[in-house]
From TrEMBL:
This is Flavodoxin. InterPro entries: Flavodoxin/NO_synth, Flavodoxin_CS, Flavoprotein-like_sf. PROSITE patterns: FLAVODOXIN (PS00201). It comes from Sedimentibacter saalensis. One of its GO terms (molecular function) is oxidoreductase activity, acting on NAD(P)H. Residues 2-107 form the Flavodoxin-like domain.
């Protein structure tokens, strides 16, 4: 099984999850960066643009997903919605006949059901099959640590038969 782990991170939380998924599945990591990061555009703009479902322009990167069986797609919640960079990733990729695993980080403790539903609909419309979803609450002042992620991720990946090491 060939795994791709594609993600966007602004403050490092989603990256911590992405790296651990990559370690545990042997998946190739692909970090997406924006042409204009929210620091430049402003956080109010970031929140607003997420609410209205905008996409941002991503730095040119090879988002060719051919040859992968499983795509892990990760991002964060902004203003109760999928972040604009996450919208861009979904928009740019081809999910046809892929198993797609969503992973999200957010500050709230409750399940981001609306975000999961909307991402699922968009990915399914592009031919992807949503295999499972993982989400984790991040903290305000410190980035998620490997020690706190490894156990829940091992469980999640093992349940889905995609755990390769660990
Ligand atoms: C502009 C902005 C809006 C946010 N809005 C929400 C929100 O509505 N709900 C929530 O749970 N977290 C919200 N957060 C927190 C992020 O989802 C959380 O910190 C996430 O782990 C960030 O991921 P990252 O470190 O990979 O960038 C927001 C963060 C930013 C920067």
């Amino acid at each position: 099984m060939k795994n791709l782990v594609v993600y966007y991170t602004l403050s490092g939380n989603t990256e911590a999850v992405a790296k651990e998924i990559s370690n545990l599945t042997g998946g190739e990591l692909k970090k997406i960066e924006m042409v204009k990061e929210p620091e430049a555009a402003g956080f109010a703009w970031a929140a607003f643009s997420s609410i209205i479902g905008l996409k941002g322009k991503i730095k040119s990167t090879d988002l060719n997903d051919d040859g992968y069986d499983n795509i892990f797609i990760g991002g964060q919640v902004w203003a109760g919605h999928s972040s604009t960079p996450l919208n861009s990733i979904i928009h740019s990729m081809n999910f046809k006949n892929k198993n797609v695993y969503i992973f999200l980080t957010l500050a709230d403790e409750k399940e981001p059901t609306a975000v999961i539903k909307s991402m699922t609909e968009r990915i399914e419309r592009k031919g992807g099959n949503i295999a499972d979803v993982f989400y984790v609450q991040s903290k305000m002042k410190e980035v998620l640590k490997q020690e706190e992620l490894i156990r829940p991720l091992q469980e999640w990946l093992s349940k889905n038969n995609v755990l390769q090491v660990g």
